[in-house]
Amino acid sequence: MSLFMDIHHVEGGVKAGDVAAAHEKDLSTQSEFGVNYVKYWVDEEAGKIFCLVDAPDAEAANAVHAKAHGLVADEIYPISAEG
User: Is-contact 56 34, C-beta < 8 A?
Assistant: First the structure.
């Protein structure tokens, strides 16, 4: 498993409550793909969502979003927990 940070860009902003609901759907879907969504952060005004995910690969992480609610990440980066 590897850590990834995914980034979503939502035109016009986003509401934290909507992101929380989508995250709950991720949590109920993630085991099917061997993924663990660890934490997320929201910048409502900028329309940015950041998700920290432990996954076998970036495709598996995005597959959870796709199946759970259809809001796949615009960007996804491998990250290191070290440091």
Answer: yes
